[in-house]
TrEMBL record:
<dbReference type="InterPro" id="IPR010551">
    <property type="entry name" value="G6P_isomerase_prok"/>
</dbReference>
<dbReference type="InterPro" id="IPR011051">
    <property type="entry name" value="RmlC_Cupin_sf"/>
</dbReference>
<keyword id="KW-0312">Gluconeogenesis</keyword>
<dbReference type="GO" id="GO:0006096">
    <property type="term" value="P:glycolytic process"/>
</dbReference>
<dbReference type="GO" id="GO:0005737">
    <property type="term" value="C:cytoplasm"/>
</dbReference>
<dbReference type="Pfam" id="PF06560">
    <property type="entry name" value="GPI"/>
</dbReference>
<keyword id="KW-0324">Glycolysis</keyword>
<dbReference type="GO" id="GO:0004347">
    <property type="term" value="F:glucose-6-phosphate isomerase activity"/>
</dbReference>
<feature type="domain" description="Glucose-6-phosphate isomerase prokaryote">
    <location>
        <begin position="31"/>
        <end position="168"/>
    </location>
</feature>
<protein>
    <recommendedName>
        <fullName>glucose-6-phosphate isomerase</fullName>
        <ecNumber>5.3.1.9</ecNumber>
    </recommendedName>
</protein>
<dbReference type="InterPro" id="IPR014710">
    <property type="entry name" value="RmlC-like_jellyroll"/>
</dbReference>
<keyword id="KW-0413">Isomerase</keyword>
<comment type="similarity">
    <text>Belongs to the archaeal-type GPI family.</text>
</comment>
<comment type="pathway">
    <text>Carbohydrate degradation; glycolysis; D-glyceraldehyde 3-phosphate and glycerone phosphate from D-glucose: step 2/4.</text>
</comment>
<dbReference type="GO" id="GO:0006094">
    <property type="term" value="P:gluconeogenesis"/>
</dbReference>
Amino acid sequence: MHLSIPPSINYLTGHIDAENVVCKATTLGALEGVFADETQRAKSAQDKIIYQVEMLPAQHAEGELNFGVSHIEPGSVGDEFHMTRGHIHQRKEQAEFYLGSQGEGLLLMQTEQGEVTIEKVFPGSVHHIPGFVAHRLINTSDIRLSALAVWPAIAGHNYDFLTEVGFKVRVLKSSDGYKVVSIEEEPQNL
């Protein structure tokens, strides 16, 4: 018999401890068209990391699961909080789980029919993202927002959702912390 040590997760930071962790950083320069204030985004440091994903090596077979962590840095572009690009799964019927690890923020979920649900993300929160729902994480705190994720290996990611349909709301800074503004109400010059 051989005793092996599996990968581990630091639940307080969301950091995965394993030899073969895959890391991907998304910079402000890669998020053209994501934030409302494109002028502000374009004149900001394009190499600034907005979010990172670390995950165990991807599985691909039917029935397998993938595990990763999204880390969204604090900050904003204009009045809009840092967030992930957001996506719907290529296999739209596939669901996903997020678990809050550190920081505070919001999970924005939107059906293909445009129905929006928003859940508060915080350490210990558990979020079920049903199939046929696009989703995005938004950091509304002053520290990094980290959320663990488990999803079917066959789900895939469709990032074109943003340009094809788009999210119907934005989360902006306000005197109370944040406010959710529908795209129809959105001021033209944030």
